[in-house]
Amino acid sequence: MSQSPGPFRRTMPSRMAIGPLGRIIAQIIVPAIAIIARTLPAAYAAALENARKSGTANEASGDAARRGASFLGKARMSKDEALMVLNLTENDVSVETVRRQYDRYFESNKVENGGSFYLQSKIYRAKELLDEYVKEKEAEGKQRVDGGGRGEGR
């Protein structure tokens, strides 16, 4: 009785070769996934901590309040961009000039007249930001005047 090569004998060596290869791949992939599972939360925590630190530093300088940047949200317009949108310089900023430039550009960009809603939105946001800036500037001026008066009376 001679043994003829059966179907198992032909396919067995190729299946056996996949077995050790599969084991090697599994031995590489499982620890890699474990490492990633440990490092991702640590990296995320570090990123949040950095965001908190920089947020605190920016709030101390008053910059974050103007920018309104958030971790996942879109950053607000900067003061420089607002000045460019309304075609003003920092020395020209006052309630009257901001209102005058806002009215001029907002009217000329009316959607009914073929203008752009996007540009109107930019103009409106620039006015909002510069109004806040003018209020802060006036408040700082009042504090300096009030602070100087108290120091002389002592």
TrEMBL record:
A Pfam family annotated for this UniProt entry: Pam16
Alphabetically ordered keywords of this record: Membrane, Mitochondrion, Mitochondrion inner membrane, Protein transport, Translocation, Transport
Keyword Transcription regulation assigned: no
Top-level lineage group: Eukaryota
GO cellular component: mitochondrial inner membrane
Entry's localization field: Mitochondrion inner membrane
GO biological process: protein transport
Main location, first listed in the record: mitochondrion
Topological relation to the membrane, as annotated: Peripheral membrane protein
Family: Belongs to the TIM16/PAM16 family.
PANTHER family per UniProt: MITOCHONDRIA ASSOCIATED GRANULOCYTE MACROPHAGE CSF SIGNALING MOLECULE, MITOCHONDRIAL IMPORT INNER MEMBRANE TRANSLOCASE SUBUNIT TIM16
Protein name: Mitochondrial import inner membrane translocase subunit tim16
